[in-house]
């Protein structure tokens, strides 16, 4: 899966192999997404402090957000993770996303291990990532 981030960089999900990855589907106009965002900021900060042991966080924006709207959303609410534009809906279809927010935990082999529909809090997300690490024995 390949896309372009809000800041114009190229994103390839397959290049994330070897790391635990959390992918969050959202839209800047979505009320539950706005409510969830502080939890994702806290999760990202926690994972950053873990260094190489932390999970990588990425967001997939559901149209019709423009890059400027996404950048404004993050400038106002915080957070510093890449946001991939899903203008053609391929990420949405590949993951089977029915609504936003929706969050996926992907193991270092690129296998989706957990799907969470609806808003999630930072503690639950961190526990789920650790649970998946423990279950599958992949660090």
UniProtKB/TrEMBL annotation:
Gene Ontology CC: cell envelope
Pfam families: AhpC-TSA (PF00578)
Span of domain Thioredoxin: 1-134
Keywords of this entry: Cytochrome c-type biogenesis, Disulfide bond, Redox-active center
Record localization: Cell envelope
GO biological processes: cytochrome complex assembly
Keyword Disulfide bond applies: yes
Keyword set includes Disulfide bond: yes
Xref: PANTHER family: THIOL:DISULFIDE INTERCHANGE PROTEIN DSBE (PTHR42852:SF6)
The protein's name: Unannotated protein
Organism: freshwater metagenome
Organism classification: unclassified sequences, metagenomes, ecological metagenomes
